[in-house]
Amino acid sequence: MPAKEVLQILSGMRDIPIILSPYSLDPNSPGDLFQRDGRYNEDGRDQTNILYPLLFGQDGDEILFTDDYSGILGTNLALLQKTGIMTAWNGKFEGGEMLTRAEAVTILHRFYNHLKQTGTLRQYSSK
Hints:
Helix content is about 35%, strand content about 10%.
């Protein structure tokens, strides 16, 4: 999914931090400072529920991911929203909140249907 589409989808979610800045290959650019914010620490700390800002760069009309974290996480969140598997409610994704059993079952059912519709269910199931 192109970064421009991901940015458009995620911009509607008030609880997903996004930073859009001019794209630069300069190693002293502001984007590089954010890559030192702990998102790549390998010191063994549990970072499961930490949501770092998603970084996008703009070069003229082109929107780019400025780091791997933003590209992978941003694309996955946008796909969950776009496919309807997990959706924002009242402008919030609420990814850090606990799920109820009913919400978990709904998500699993939507995911199952998505895999079935796209013809990829066989990769994950014997059915």
